[in-house]
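Standup notes
- HV: blocked on the assembly model, inputs below
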Amino acid sequence: MADRAVNAAPDILVVGGGNAALCAAISARRAGASVLILERAPKPYRGGNSRHTRNFRCMHAGPLGQLTDIYDEGEFFDDLIKVTGGKTDEALARLTIRRSESCYSWMQDNGVRFQPSLSGTLSLSRTNAFFLGGGKALVNAYYRTAAALGVEIVYDARVDHLEFDGRVRRVMATVDEQQITLCPRAVIVASGGFQADIDWLASAWGEAARNFLIRGTPYNRGEVLKDLLGQGIESVGDPTQCHAVAIDGRAPKYDGGIVTRLDCVPFSIVVNNAARRFYDEGEDVWPKRYAIWGRLVAAQPDQVGYAIIDAKSRELFMPSVFPPVTADTIEGLAGKMGLPAETLAKTVSEFNAACQDGPFQPTELDGLSTKGLNPPKTNWARPITEPPFFGYELRPGVTFTYLGLKVDDTAQVQGPDGPVVNLWAAGEIMAGSILGQGYLAGFGMAIGTVFGRLAGEGAADYVR
Amino acid sequence: MFDETLQEARRQAEICNACRYCEGYCAVFPAMFEHRSFDDADLTQLANLCHNCRGCYYACQYTEPHEFALNLPQALAETRQASWQEFAWPRAFAPVFERAGLAIAAGLVVGFALLFWLAAALRPASGEGFYAVMSHGLMVAIFAPAFLLPLAAMAVSVRRYWRFVGGGRPAISALWQATRAAGAMTNLAGGHGEGCNFEDEDRYSNLRRYLHQATLYGFLLCFAATTAGTIMHYGFALKAPYAFFSLPKLLGVTGGILLCAGTAGLAWLKMGARADLGVARLWGGEMAFVVLLFSVSFTGLLLYAATGSSDVRVLLPLHLATVLTFFLLIPYSKMAHGFYRMAALMQDAAQKGRA
């Protein structure tokens, strides 16, 4: 990188190197603009959190590629409202939904390939289009397309500051430890959230956040977001909130991605490090509850939980990336997991005593509930009696943060005096404009693709 | 058996099984995801099913520098290689796999010297074409055992593999499906038909697939040419040399050209491909094998071109030395992959049928 000069005056500078950034860069380049991408990560880690994704949610009026049946705007929007509890900008959400349909073929045209819904996924074959090979394959395809179109790409490039005089005038960046100044005519920021900045998380959430695991890239540090918010750019989204799910406690601090998920909770009891239960493990099917469990575990001492199952539940969920802790007795399991053995034995026997007879249906709400237990387990409550016993450590894993830049329906960023004429935003950095809380599988990639394309087209129009 | 290699393959397969993003690339992943845990037989079968297309490597978010350090093509290649050595028969020849380059060079030098000397010492009194240099009887005396014995050894090895991975009674339908998969090289097509990632990082290309098909079909045509000649010789007393418009020549020349082009192309691709996505220490031996196959076809074509000239006296022993070396090394060289691959494809078809 150091051996070649970076074009200091591209038509359009794209800050970031994930899905939204690449969609923006490709769209802008196809519209005739010269484009420079500054990606903070080194090449092997390029692509931000997009490298961990696997599908995007896509509206369609009829069968579309790998997508079956119909998924119309109304149903898509209803699904969104269910998970966000109404904390949704309806106009921007409907814009995303409507435009998602044309993304499918656009993505294919730019090198993305789709595959049937993966085994072990919920029935997403109608609503979500899966990328062949997953998100990194998608990112690879976009980089290849962008490079072929003549987009200039620089890795290990950190953007430090955007300088304004009503519009963006100059951009300061650090490439290979050298500070450079760029004078692009327009800028698209697509540099993600701030979830990898643990200090920022801790100042927003509290010290407990230091025990959180970060599921995605260590490079989403929110530097550009912080720089812009510090200069009066309008923000949206709750600055104190992040989307966290319960994941395998042995996962790496960063970048564990999809494999660290644990689907065992509905068939388990979950205790804290005092070996006591704290919530109804069988409240609903896991896909509707994993986000709640991120918060529940975060509220426990040392932000840790322990899911315990017995032999008869071992095959009921997707395999875990690390083998579970295994013991022939509950006391033995407690010893191996560092839990108070006596209390755990008591918790388990109380739970077992509260279990009732009845049909067990692992794939649906079976109503097999405990009786007289507090907190109850309202579905899939079977006594934990059959050795060997298995234990999984749970910790909160942060997926993304909600705080972002406020954009309008052209992806243009809003300053104190209205839209900034030469600044657009796409992807996680503005997703808070649409998604106020909760999450809908594949919606982040839909937002990134739709707004990336809008930003690229808008910026290219502006510089023309 | 080869515990450390299997342990590493197991570690990686368990991570893959919790991810599953690569399900659409090839037959390895759907087969892998049928398991909850992986015993030695499962991993050996998966390893021999893998065609080393590398699609999964470039799509993987867990490759180095990530601490999970996934490199599934390499882990499966190591397992595959170890399994061939484990099943090699007689076992004493297993180390030949690790010294393929040396074995091929030695085979060529010794084979040429031997055949040249035999041709000179036992020069036939009469005979047409090649038989003027070396008699039919002598060729059969050397090549019938040099072909059939290694083939028998290979059969023993594949049988050991088949038993180890739990193969049942071989079914015609499984054989048919395996033949179709191998014939079309569907597992090098990347799931989307655009090929594999062998040439330029994550760029898909069908070039390797087509070059491998040229090699495979070229080889089969050459084999068919020899078979046709044998049948004509013994069945119809039609003896060589044959005219150009005869079955042995038409099959042999077409096959030879395909085999030349295919192996030359594969060798060229291998020069540019990353060695660390296979068994890097065996790169040289694998390359030597491709070059050997090229030499078999190239010297065969040269020999045909030299028909009637005095060059035949050198070219015939040279060509026969390449063929002899190739035959003898069938069970202990890269050639073994074809037999194991067919067995793995059959077992995969059978398992799919049961699932």
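- HV (later): unblocked. Residues 3-84 of chain B form one domain. The mean pLDDT of chain B is 95.
- Next: hand off to the docking folks.
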